[in-house]
Each structure stands twice: as C-alpha cells, then as structure tokens.
Design goal:
CATH architecture of the largest domain: Roll
Helix content: 40-55%
Radius of gyration: 21 Å
Structural class: alpha+beta
Low-confidence stretches: 116-120, 125-148
CATH class of the largest domain: Mainly Beta
CATH topology of the largest domain: PH-domain like
Strand order of the largest sheet: 1-2-3-4-5
Largest sheet: 5 strands, antiparallel
Mean pLDDT: 78
Shape: elongated
Order of helices and strands: EEHHEEHHEEEEHE
Number of domains: 2
Distance between the termini: 24 Å
Number of strands: 9
Length: 204
C-alpha cells in the first residue's frame, strides 16, 4: 500500500501520521447508551443477589415483588441522572468531542484535545467528589475512569478489528479510532496491514 497522506491526515516530520476528528455529542449518543447499559448490568446483578437472599431466607412473593420494584426504580433514577449528566457534559464540551490521533507502524494514540481535556478533567473531579460525598463507589469509579484523556493501542497486541463505517469508528482493543469518510479507507488499511494477529469484522 502507498501510504500517501490524505487531505486531512498529515505525515509529519517525525514519520507519524496525525489528524483531528470531532464527534458530535448530540448526534452520536453511543456514550450515553453505553453508560445506561453499564448501570443496567449493575442493577440486574443487584437484583439477582436480592433474589438469592430473599429465596434463601424463605421470604414470600410480595417481598420479591417489592425488591423488583425497588431495583426497577433505581434503574429509572440512574437513567435519568445519566441523561442529565451526559447533556451537561456535552454542553460543557461545546457539543463535540475533539480528538487528535497520532499513528505510526507501531500503534495509534487517541488523545482528547488539550483544551477539552482540561474541561473533562474538571467534570471528572466533580463526579468523583459527588461520589465520595454520597458514599457511592460506582460514581467514584466513573469519575476516575473518565479522567483518562488519552488511549494508546500497540498494533502487535490487537486481536480483533471491528469496523462501524456508518459511524466512522474503528474499534481496537478498548480504543476507538475515528476518521472522516474520505480518510477512512486509508486509516483502516494502514491499521489492518500493521495488525498481523488481528481478525477483521465489519459492522454496517
């Protein structure tokens, strides 16, 4: 493959390709849905634990129904808080998630734009503080995880490449690479040729 830089992907003096990509936080709600899925999984596990405790204690059907109602209300509450928190975050970020990518033959770096990273760190610190004050370890964990403003993937460790062309996303071992339509094939083929151990799967 001839690795000529495209219009928006630049080959820099250090031999690395760099480009900037902005994702609309209002049009692409995948992050919000992921948060809701995480809370849903946590509450479902809590419900199973409650059921096991109630059954082992010989509690009646009414107690099981009440426990189910409680978990369902908790899920609705967490969904509401997630939606409110997400759109507050989107407003603080200016409605977009701006990423700078750096890629060479060894790997790819996904790095939030410096100006946005400072805002995101402030939001994360507030989230952690709320979690500590409310004694909620889940909220603290979310705040700690969201403080990470960069992700690096070494191509030699990639085992699977998942592609979502319609969303302009390439999934790599917990990392996500974004590229515009006109740059997407170039970036994807470069990654595929440098991930010898990876299997490929396209998600249309």
């Amino acid at each position: 493959m001839n690795y000529e830089p495209t219009k928006d992907v630049f080959l820099c003096g250090d031999g690395k390709y760099r480009w900037v990509y902005e994702r609309s936080l209002y049009k692409d709600l995948s992050i919000l849905f992921l948060i809701i899925k995480i809370f849903g999984a946590i509450i479902f596990i809590m419900w199973i634990i409650f059921m096991l405790i109630l059954v082992s204690a010989g509690e009646g059907f009414d107690d099981i129904v009440e426990a189910t109602k409680f978990n369902f209300l908790m899920f609705l509450l967490m969904c509401g808080l997630s939606v409110a928190g997400y759109f507050l975050y989107a407003a603080i970020m200016g409605g977009a998630y701006c990423v700078v990518f750096t890629m060479d033959e060894v790997g790819v770096l996904h790095e939030q734009h410096e100006r946005q990273a400072k805002k995101a760190q402030l939001v994360s610190e507030i989230t952690m503080l709320v979690g500590i004050l409310s004694k909620n370890p889940t909220t603290v964990g979310i705040g700690m995880n969201s403080m990470r403003s960069s992700m690096y993937t070494k191509f030699s460790k990639v085992r699977e490449i998942k592609v979502e062309r319609k969303k302009n996303i390439i999934h790599l071992a917990g990392n996500e690479v974004y590229a515009r339509d006109e740059d997407f094939d170039f970036v994807l083929e470069f990654i595929r040729e440098h991930c010898p151990k990876a299997k490929n799967s396209d998600v249309l």
